[in-house]
Amino acid sequence: MLLAHLLHLRGIDSVVLESRSREEIEATLRAGVLEQGTVDLLNESGVGERMRREGMPHEGVILRFDGQSHRIHLSELTGGRAITVYAQHEVIRDLVKARLDRGGRILFGVKDVSLLDLDTRQPKLRFHDKDGALQELACDYIAGCDGFHGVSRPSIPSRLRREFTRVYPFGWFGILVEAPPATDELIYAYHDRGFALVSTRSPQIQRLYLQCNPNNTAGDWPDDRIWEELHARLAGDDGFRLTEGRIFQKGVIAMRSFVVEPMQYGRLFLAGDAAHIVPPTGAKGLNLAVADVRVLALALSEFYASGRTQLMDRYSETALQRVWRAEHFSWWMTSMLHHFHDESPFHHRLQLSQLRYVTESRAAAAMLAENYVGLPFRDD
Ligand code: DHB
């Protein structure tokens, strides 16, 4: 949706195929942290108005361990950059509206999409539209932004793809709670009983997560058990107390690292989760997708303006540099903050040492901060 908008701003026409309905995509709950570069891009491209009003900028983030909170001063360590909490489905709502207001074409409810002739000058998309009619769309280029389970990635011949995967032995149990936030800033908590994360959605709604068994379902977590675990994992002697409230949404999130190389084949370019997955600990998923389509929009603009394909030819290489940085950061945050079942006392001490180091050393804190707020985009 963002790619379609960025292309439109440069006078390039596109059609978005979406398998779900507008209502469904606008209601699907996802993460909520926007990097500085994502915020800037949404603002510069004229879709940041509601985000500026309703989003919550944070200049710091808290790491909590040994019963104490330690603040990383993001802005001070990164020359004034920050993160903004504004849920992904709100970004989607703003982008859908922006496209439809400008006459953009989004085909909702399409089914059975297949990608054809990708290695020719005229690739095609074949699909059933929402009324069940078979359609074929001839394209100049196809952007595969259809997620981890989409058809785009498997449309690249397997002999030309290399895939890198790590599956973590835990998941996150996420809840939405009707209660005012207990804290001004996000809290990432490390505890023997497992990781916990305190985030927010609005002055009335908190978003909380706790490390769980990846096979858990909502039924495994009655409200009492959720509160007991959250209180235990966030406990301390500094007076911090979580605010309880009505839990009105529960769900389990799987944890996986994944990258495919290359991210392009013929006239198909993969972007976002179709090409890479990060565990949610670094809050990078949406931001990486935004960074991908930013590179792709610049490359396609260069081609339509001048006929040059240099940027497009380098799309995969350029995008993968940022992808692997975010993969490392997300894996590192995940490894530092979670309880591993086969963890030895040695490993536990290493985690605590790392946490102390990133909260006590300015250099180490700056490393966390610059990755967390997002490294500046490189336009080479
Ligand atoms: C949220 C999600 C994350 O993955 C994260 O690291 C921080 C916050 C959220 O949904 O608010």
Summary?
The chain has 380 residues and is of the alpha+beta class.
Question: Any low-confidence stretches, pLDDT <50, length ≥5?
Answer: none
- List all distinct small molecules, including ions and cofactors, that are bound in this structure: 3,4-dihydroxybenzoic acid
Shape descriptor reads: globular
The averaged pLDDT comes out at 96
- The CATH class of the domain at 2-59 and 81-165 and 256-340, by name, is Alpha Beta
Tell me roughly what share of residues is in helical segments.
25-40%
CATH architecture verdict of the domain at 2-59 and 81-165 and 256-340: 3-Layer(bba) Sandwich
Instruction: Report, as a whole number of angstroms, the end-to-end distance.
Output: 24 Å
Radius of gyration: 21 Å
The CATH superfamily of the domain at 2-59 and 81-165 and 256-340 turns out to be FAD/NAD(P)-binding domain
Alpha-beta content class: alpha+beta
